[in-house]
Design brief:
This protein is of the alpha+beta class and 275 residues long. 17% of the residues lie in helices and 20% in strands. The chain has two domains: 52 residues, no CATH class; 148 residues, GpdQ, catalytic alpha/beta sandwich domain (Purple Acid Phosphatase, chain A, domain 2, 4-Layer Sandwich).
Length: 275
């Protein structure tokens, strides 16, 4: 199926029209080389600049194409050189802390011995680029009644609030296993109260600290010999209604909050956290 008119944002070099479905290996073989003839090739527009920069000539079928919103330019893309270069090694390694003076280098895997221009894009990092994301894993033991460990759960979330500005904490992710024994309401109440500390509004955080909570096997009853998943209590305490009106809450899949996503931004980056 084809249409007579269409638009494209970007650059195109060599458009081909075939009257048959080509095999996967044929398509892969022709991606990086010039094809001027072949079985079923009924149209070929090289898009090389000619007498009229607004007309693309069909070298096979004789059907010239008028360009709208674009024009032909001098050849700056060369086929028949094989696949694009692949970055094999970068120095210094990604994420490595370096001083103000550093030598940048990289190794490329090339399909053909041809000169390659490498452009480095760098920018100066400032205080706004430095931020912290807090991860809370496996808090279930803190919620067990009679062990006097509840305070450690509260201490962790209170530390986030107390140090939010100091460390520029932009979000909190709970990895699941919020509680230990799914039927125990006491444990759910402990967890709910501890995480509620993160939800207290501030001047610049009207919805509190962005919070995403995942469901662990202790939270969905899939422990021991039980094989029937049940997230009723998780949704009673951390369901859609708890998060629905918070700006950072993106939504959920299905009718429950078992699968949800939250967003936050920091350092010029937009984050989407799926739980």
């Amino acid at each position: 199926m084809a249409c007579r008119t269409a638009s494209s944002q970007g650059a195109i070099d060599e458009l081909r029209l075939w009257n048959r479905a080509r095999a996967e290996d044929e398509i892969a073989d022709g991606m990086y080389r010039t094809i001027v003839m072949g079985e079923g090739l009924v149209g070929r527009w090289s898009f090389d600049a000619g007498d009229d920069p607004a007309i693309a000539t069909d070298d096979v079928g004789g059907r010239s194409a008028a360009l709208s919103g674009a024009m032909l330019v001098e050849e700056d893309v060369t086929l028949d050189r094989g696949r694009a270069p692949v970055v094999a090694n970068v120095t210094p390694a990604d994420g490595l802390a370096v001083g103000p003076d550093v030598m940048l280098d990289l190794a490329l895997e090339l399909s053909a011995r041809q000169p390659v221009d490498v452009t480095y894009h760098v920018r100066e990092l400032g205080a706004a680029d430095d931020f912290t994301i807090v991860v809370l894993p496996d808090t279930q033991i803190y919620t067990i009644e009679g062990r006097n460990l509840e305070k450690y759960f509260h201490d962790q979330t209170q530390w986030v609030r107390d140090n939010r500005e100091k460390y520029n904490i932009v979000g909190v992710i709970h990895n699941g296993d919020v509680i230990n024994n799914e039927p125990e309401l006491y444990q759910w109440n402990v967890a709910s109260a501890a995480l509620a500390r993160l939800e207290k509004p501030e001047t610049d955080l009207p919805d509190g600290v962005p919070l995403g909570v995942a469901v662990g096997n202790h939270d969905n009853k899939l422990i021991g010999q039980n094989t029937v998943l049940n997230t009723d209590k998780f949704n009673q305490f951390f369901g859609v209604n708890r998060f629905a009106n918070r700006a950072y809450y993106g939504g959920h899949y299905g009718t429950k909050n078992d699968n949800s996503w939250v967003t936050f931004s920091a350092g010029g980056l937009d984050f989407v956290v799926v739980s």
